[in-house]
Amino acid sequence: METQLVESVKLAGSVPALDMSLWGLFSHADLIGKSVMIGLLVVSVFTWALIFDKIAKISRLKTRAGFFEERFWAAGSLDGLYEKIKRPGDPMQAVFVAGMKEWRAAHDKGLLDTPQGRSNILARIDRMLQVTIGREMAQVETWMTFLASVGSVAPFVGLFGTVWGIMRAFIGIAQAQNTSLGVVAPGIAEALMATAVGLVAAIPATAAYNKFANEIGRYGARLENFANDMIATLSRNMESK
C-alpha cells in the first residue's frame, strides 16, 4: 500500500512546475520565438516614440499655420511680410516664400505690364505653389508608411511566432507522451504570447496611422486653401496697378 502511494506521488510530480508568468513564458521559448517577441517589442517601443513625436510636430504645424495666417491677412503689403521672413520655419511660410519669389522675379523682369504676362505669371506662381505644397507634405508624411506597415505586418509576425510555438508544443507533447493540462498549457500559452505581442505593436500603430492621416489631410487642405488665397490676393494686386 505504501509503495502505491509513493508511486502516485511521483507520478503526480512527474511534470515539473513551470513559471507561467510573462517572463517565465518568454524564458521558456526557443530562439525563434524569442527573436519574434523581442523584434515586435522593439518595433512597439519605436512606434510609441514615433507617435509622440508626430503628435508634437502636427500640433506645432497647426499652431504655426494659424499664427502665419493671421500675419498674412493683417499684413498691409505682401512684399513687407516677405521681407520679414529670413528663412521659412514651416510649410505654410515655405509656400508663401515660393510664391513671392516668382512674383518678385516677374516684377523685376517687367512681365506684369501686360494682361497676357500677368495671366502667365499667375499660372506659373500657381504651379510653383503646388510643387512646394507637394514637397512640404512629403516631409510631413515621413514615417507614415512605417506606421501602416507595422499595423498590417505585426499581427502576421506574431501569428508566425504562435504557429511556431504550437508546433514546438505538440512535438513536446508527443515526446513526453502525456496529454495532461500541465504539459499542454505552458506550450500553448507561450505560443499565444507571440500573437499578443504582435497585437500590442499593431493596434497603436493602426490607430495612430488613421488619426495622423486625417490630421495631415486636413493640413494639406489648409495649405491648398492658403495657396488659393495667395493667388487671389496677388491677382487683386495686379489689377490695382
Structural commentary:
The structure is a single chain. The protein has 241 residues and is an all-alpha fold. Helix content is 85%, strand content 0%. Helix 5 packs antiparallel against helix 6 (115-140) and helix 7 packs antiparallel against helix 8 (181-240). The termini are far apart.
Catalogue the unreliable spans: 1-15
Q: List the helices and strands in order.
A: HHHHHHHH
End-to-end distance = 116 Å
| Beta strand count | 0
Major sheet: size, sense and barrel closure? none
How many helices? The count is 8
Descriptive terms for the model:
single chain, 241 residues, mainly alpha
Describe the secondary structure blueprint for this structure.
Elements: H1 2-12, H2 22-28, H3 31-74, H4 78-84, H5 91-108, H6 115-140, H7 144-176, H8 181-240
Helix pairs in contact: 2-8, 3-7, 3-8, 5-6, 5-8, 6-8, 7-8
In a few lines, what is going on in this structure?
This protein is an all-alpha fold. Helix content is 85%, strand content 0%.
